Write a sequence for this structure.
């Protein structure tokens, strides 16, 4: 593609043709792969395509197909000081949002009889229930992947594993806690930044806050249990946020250290726009027994 663009005076026609062909490809092994990986110093960045790669078979819904997931898993297992897993949709949603999506997927699959499938599908589309918990098999696979990578022996586990996401119309940070039996060596976080988000109306914001409240979580948990849904083997809460503003998130890595900083635009008294720090959180353990080998920065 790069060679073709460099050889063309104007690459617009070429890009339009390529985009039309790519958008019409189904999630099969021969399709174009939008997931990709990069190395930035000693930081491994693996970006998961959570749009084009979906498998929507009601009997086996997946965020990405099996072949692509195997490729992603292999990349994540490669040794790195820090691992960043990017996905446009959050995996670890706050409050009862995840349980609600898990319940909805099971009802859509017939857990409450075939008569409830139609209304449940209407709810799924009306509320846009499409995050990772709405694809339970892929959610479980992501949790297992994090556990496997974070427990790699011989000192090969990353110091930090950061799951980056957006597209939920607010920003937040959560640290993930796993059972001691996982033998996790890495510190794991979910970081959600919505740089240019849809402004939620007061009613929508109120509904979102209710869903993220303890009462909303208890109701959603009850619905999940009513369909036989299992409790995930990982726990988290809102450590920072939610922030209902356009925000810019920055990850900074320096040897074994890692921090996340979230900023939003504000105006001073003279109407001069500036970036105001909403929160800045260290992601690494206080002591990392590795010699620093450089620094990297990844903004998103």
């Amino acid at each position: 593609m790069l060679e073709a663009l460099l050889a063309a005076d104007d690459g617009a026609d070429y890009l339009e043709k390529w985009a039309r062909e790519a958008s019409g490809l189904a999630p099969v092994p021969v399709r174009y792969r939008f997931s990709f990986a990069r190395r930035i110093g000693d930081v491994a960045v693996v970006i998961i395509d959570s749009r084009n790669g979906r498998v929507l078979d009601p009997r086996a819904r997946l965020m990405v197909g099996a072949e692509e997931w195997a490729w992603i898993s292999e990349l994540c297992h490669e040794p790195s000081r820090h691992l960043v897993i990017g996905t446009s949709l959050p995996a670890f949603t706050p409050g009862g949002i995840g349980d609600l999506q898990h319940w909805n997927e099971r009802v859509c699959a017939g857990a409450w009889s075939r008569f409830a499938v139609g209304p449940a599908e209407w709810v799924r589309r009306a509320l846009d229930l499409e995050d990772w918990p709405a694809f339970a098999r892929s959610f479980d696979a992501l949790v297992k992947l994090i556990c496997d990578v974070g427990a790699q022996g011989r000192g090969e586990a990353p110091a930090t594993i950061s799951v980056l996401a957006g597209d939920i119309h607010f920003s937040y940070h959560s640290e993930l806690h796993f059972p001691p039996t996982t033998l996790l060596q890495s510190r794991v976080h979910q970081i959600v930044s919505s740089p240019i988000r849809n402004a939620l109306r007061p009613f929508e914001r109120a509904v979102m806050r209710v869903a993220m409240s303890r009462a909303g979580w208890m109701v959603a948990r009850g619905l999940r249990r009513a369909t036989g849904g299992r409790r995930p083997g990982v726990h988290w809460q809102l450590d920072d946020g939610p922030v209902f503003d356009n925000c810019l998130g920055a990850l900074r890595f320096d040897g074994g250290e890692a921090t996340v900083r979230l900023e939003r635009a504000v105006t001073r008294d003279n109407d001069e726009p500036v970036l105001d720090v909403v929160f800045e959180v260290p992601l690494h353990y206080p002591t990392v027994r590795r010699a620093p080998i450089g620094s990297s920065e990844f903004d998103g």
Observations:
- The chain has a mean pLDDT of 86.
- The radius of gyration is 20 Å.
